[in-house]
Amino acid sequence: MAKNFSIEDGNLYNAPITTSIKRINKDIDTSFTAKPSTGDIYKVTDAAAVKQSVKNLLMTERGKTPFRPYYGGGLETFLFSLSTDLEPSDIENRVRQTIEAHEPRAKLVDVKVTIKEDYNTANVVIVFDVIGSTKRVTLGLTIARTR
Amino acid sequence: MTINSSDLDFYNIKSKLKTYFKQSDEFADYDFEASGLSNIMDVLAYNTHINGLIANMSINESFLSTSQLRSSVVSHAESLGYFPTSMTAARAVVDVEITVLNNAPTSLPLNAGSKFFVTIDETNYEFFTLQTYEAINDTTGKFVFPNVTLVEGKVKTKTFLADSNIDVPYVISDNNIDVSTMSISVFPNGNTSESNNYFNIKEVATITDQSRVYIVREAMNGFYEVLFGDGNVLGQRPQAGNIISIEYISTSGVEGNGGSEFNLNEYTGEDYSTNISLVSASAGGSSRESISQIKMNAPLAFSAQNRLVTADDYTGMIMSKYGSYLRDVSTWGGNDNIPPQYGKVFVSLNFADGINEESKTTIENLIRSQLTSNLSIMSIDTEFVNPEITYLELITRFNVDPVKNISASQLEVAVESIITEYTNLTLSSFDSSFRRSNLLTLIDNHSNAILNSKMEVKVQQRLDIDSIVTDLNVARKALDPQSEDLTFMEKDFTINYPVVIASPDKDDHIIQSSMFKWYDKNVFVRNELGSTRLQLFDVNGDVKLSNAGFYDAAKGTVNLRALRIDVDGYLSSGLKISATPANQSTISPLRNYIIKLDSSGSTVIGNTEQGSTKVLL
């Protein structure tokens, strides 16, 4: 004979008990462009905020942030490595370690690194999922000297 | 909404910024360290941190007691009229014998600046003579130079062209200068050898507009700078275009102490034979006054106002002038002395290592002639007394946990070294107290195998029988040169302890001496049980003399009446007389007493605990 149990006692048939907290990522747009209407700076939200955050993280030199000597990707330091000493896997590992350590909102899917020795350039393509969202983000970074 | 920004810590400041953002839903990414918002908060927090730090440091550096930078401490001290002492050069005294093997002259000079070398801790140091010594041929070609004073360091000269601006100091770019050796000559121009000497303003009693004085002080960067008068109230100043020549000794300071085997750099070669014998090893070299010393001495010197009135005035003045020769000074008025001697100030000097008796007398005479005769109150005499050493006998017992894997004997060695280290660090100077609970805490904390500890404390004074017998023999020979040396001595003694002695006890002896010979028998002194009367006992504990004196517990004295000690068989380490103090927890010496540990009289006993809590009594 079928019996009815309360939801608290484990009867999941009559109502779902899953809940979630709605959280939207909201950050300052680090391009610091002003809105023409108000003069305020723009905001970046949702996946764009996480994408901006990952870019900030990877392009920050280690030792540049006060009191956090190991914070940052330090990808620029690879620019000054000898091409014969540098493998794409070095950059890939650095990207993986940095994101895992410092950006909990990004779940890394793939990292691809292409080194163009003749142009003193490395292209990095990072694909990650934004946790708490269905969006998959692709971030392309080019490490090249500016002058 | 307020942001409390008085915190100095970066993370605390940043967390307060985050708290601010939490109260608004404008931005949500403040918690993620890679976000733009977090980066901006980093900048804000860092800025606040730096501002807070600068504000805190500025306030700290504004006061003598909290300053950390040497330049700030020196500046505050100068505003109190106190100029920190520079490095001082070590000095040694030697006898030099030079034998000229061929064609010896009638006299031989040892010129000022003659170099001597010595090795201290595997480093070579250069000493030189300050003056020229002359010796006469003793007809065999030998020239003897007695008591030659050597100074460590090198003479250096800095030359300046006098400036017309009176505010410009002349900087001597040398950290190692001994300021007391500085001499300044001012030449009218570069073509003449005639010069005027200028004198340190601290050594001049009266200043007129014609006085030639200079002020030397430590500069911001640790170098020294010289200033001259303004041409009016502070005396003459060199005119623009004059040549100022500053000569001084650049020294190694404290590192030059302890040199004993000197070699002369002159009169070498096959024509000469040189023999240098040591009179006193190099001593008196010191580093420049440290920050903590300046903080202590400057207020004392200020309150003394260059006068000797209170006991602290004497201490401050003597330490600031002769601190390089001294470890410590204790001073007290005659009214506080036992017995009281009114009209006197007692000064006890605890000399640094390596100062010989002759140098000690010289320093005492210098203190009299340069300080106390000029600066003290009229009709107050200064009397120097030697420091009295009071030894501590510590009987330490501790229980060892049998479960822990460490033996009692291993711990005994460790506890012995803790006791030695503690006494070395905290005792051996005036005004330093022994506190039993502090030491027992260190012992308890050493290992979790030590379950508990206790300590019996005794204070011990020593009678130097050798020197007493020597003095008696000298006195007897002065009366009768034919008299023979004493075979025994008999004398009354009053031995002062710096603490109150325990009252008589029915079970334990309060006073006990080491063994000595009495009518050819081995005996020792101890008090009768339950009485202050002192008796002589033999090794079997039988009374040999029923009344040898008494002790006064309240006054802290042991009085031995006509104590006879056989000279023959006496073991010359001083007769040790131990007393149990009334308060074993704290031993605070008075006046000129210094506490030291008697290692041979102290024992450490570790006992492995065997008891169980699961049995009946």
Would you kindly provide a written description of the structure presented here, covering whatever features stand out?
The complex is a heterodimer of chains A (about 150) and B (about 625). Chain A is an alpha+beta fold. Chain A has two helices and five strands, in the order ββααβββ. In chain A, strands 3-4-5 form a three-stranded antiparallel sheet, with helices on one face. A two-stranded antiparallel sheet of chain A has the order 1-2. The longest helix of chain A has 15 residues, at about 90-100. Chain A is extended and about 75 Å long. The model of chain A has no long low-confidence stretch (mean pLDDT about 85). The relative contact order of chain B is 0.09. Chain B has about 625 residues and is α+β, with helices and mostly antiparallel strands. Classes of the chains: A alpha+beta (about 150), B alpha+beta (about 625). The interface of A and B includes residues 27, 56 and 66 of A.
Please render the helix and strand layout as text.
The complex is a heterodimer of chains A (147) and B (617).
Chain A: E1 26-28, E2 43-45, H1 46-59, H2 88-102, E3 106-116, E4 121-130, E5 136-144
Antiparallel strand pairs in A: 1-2, 3-4, 4-5
Chain B: H1 10-22, H2 36-60, H3 70-79, E1 91-100, E2 107-110, E3 115-120, E4 123-129, E5 133-136, E6 142-152, E7 154-161, E8 170-172, E9 177-187, E10 196-200, E11 213-218, E12 224-228, E13 243-250, E14 263-264, E15 272-283, H4 291-304, H5 311-322, E16 326-333, E17 344-351, H6 357-375, E18 381-385, E19 388-400, H7 408-426, E20 434-435, H8 436-446, E21 450-463, H9 465-479, E22 488-496, E23 511-513, E24 516-518, E25 521-527, E26 533-538, E27 543-552, E28 557-566, E29 575-579, E30 586-587, E31 593-597, E32 603-608
Parallel strand pairs in B: 10-11, 17-18, 19-31, 19-32
Antiparallel strand pairs in B: 1-6, 1-15, 2-5, 3-4, 3-14, 4-6, 7-13, 8-12, 9-10, 9-13, 11-12, 16-17, 19-21, 20-30, 21-29, 22-28, 23-29, 24-25, 25-26, 26-27, 27-28
